[in-house]
Amino acid sequence: MTRELNVLALFKGEERYIFVYDEESCDALIDDIRHKAADPTIPINWFDAAVLTERIRNREENPQEEF
Length: 67
Fold this sequence. Notes:
Elements: E1 6-12, E2 15-21, H1 26-38, H2 46-61
Antiparallel strand pairs: 1-2
């Protein structure tokens, strides 16, 4: 069985965030993004976190669609 990987990217100024995840790691990735948003030393804010987690959830609900 082949494991499908998903890629989610955020480009924010000079910063680049690339998240690679599979179906089993979605919840852990959402938690990680929320922790990054709460950390004042990381430029990801709560709006970024909301957009990223929405993209992850949409991918879970519609795995065949391209976003």
